[in-house]
Amino acid sequence: MFTIIIPTHKRPTLLSRALQSVAAQTCRNFKVIVVDDAASYIPPYADLANLQGKYTFVIRSDSAAGGGPAPSRNLALDLLATDYLMFLDDDDTLAPNHLEAMAQRLSLGPVPLLFCDFNVVNEDRTVTPPKLLSSDSISLQPVTRESVYVLNRIPNSCLVYHRDVVKGLRFDTTLEIYEDWDFLLQCLKNHNPVHVPGATVNIHKSLADAPENMRRGNSRHDLTASVMMELYRRHPAPDMQTRQARVDLLKNAGVDMD
Question: For residue range 183-212, what is the model confidence (pLDDT) as tens digits?
Fold first, then answer.
């Protein structure tokens, strides 16, 4: 039923944790595609053994495709063979009942696009394994299709797509930030997302300021306004109220939008 796509880059300890959370799923109807873009360490054979018959491990060598997770996600999309898929960042984890909760919602009837709540898990990655500092549950119940056209609050790991939704779509490898938001907006053009209550995804964040501990987008705040403007141009607001909300948001940030 599900394919879980995990792009990874030089984080073997965190990848191991992510794979362990996948192996612990109570719903066993899934496959995993791991795409390693660096091959800087031996694959986590022990963790993959727990997924025997359920995984594909790919080492991507096409450095010309660009950095970041976008090329790895695109490669995995070419290998998709199930009805539903999701993306899991290599430093995030799933609660054991995540896929079961998604499957239960889908048992009520086909849905093109699902999203769930999540836990923010702050941790110290200067030690191994990472040390838990704090956690907080975030509800995405108020999020609507229109609100995502203004600002994206849905982490990529919280989304589940039907394969027909992503058919022919790919992540833009030229975007240095917000490529996941751009991909989601492509999907929302013809589909409404459905909220599934329950924080069954853990979004892990590091408070350490070492570059390897920071998410890719966190280091390019200088691009925020320009990339948002580009996405607004690519994906016109579906109504005047949403367009005005975009204008107001940028105005509060000191940017005048024509």
Answer: 999 999 999 999 999 999 999 999 756 554
Segments forming the whole domain that contains residue 111: 2-215
Max Cα–Cα distance, the chain, nearest Å: 55
- Structural domain contains residue 43: yes
In three-state secondary structure terms, 248 is helix
Kindly tell me if the per-residue pLDDT of 67 is higher than 90.
no
CATH number of the CATH domain containing 150: 3.90.550.10
Contact 126, 191 (CB under 8 A): no
Total domains in the chain come to: 1
Nearest-angstrom CA–CA distance, 176 and 146: 24
Q: Which of 239, 143, 233, 152 is nearest to 192 (CA)?
A: 143
pTM given for the model: 0.93
Please state the φ and ψ torsions of residue 120, each to the nearest 5 degrees: -90, 120
Q: What is the DSSP string of 146-211?
A: HHHHH---S-GGGEEEEHHHHTT----TT-SS-HHHHHHHHHHTS---EEEEEEEEEEEEE----G
- Residue-level length of the chain: 258
What would the pLDDT profile of 115-127 be if each residue is shown by its tens digit? 999 999 999 999 9
Reported confidence tier of residue 39, pLDDT bands at 50, 70, 90:
confident
Helix, strand, coil percentages (3-state) for the chain, rounded to 5, are 35, 25, 40
Residue 253's pLDDT band, with cuts at 50, 70 and 90, is confident
Neighbours of 256 (CB within 10 A): 7
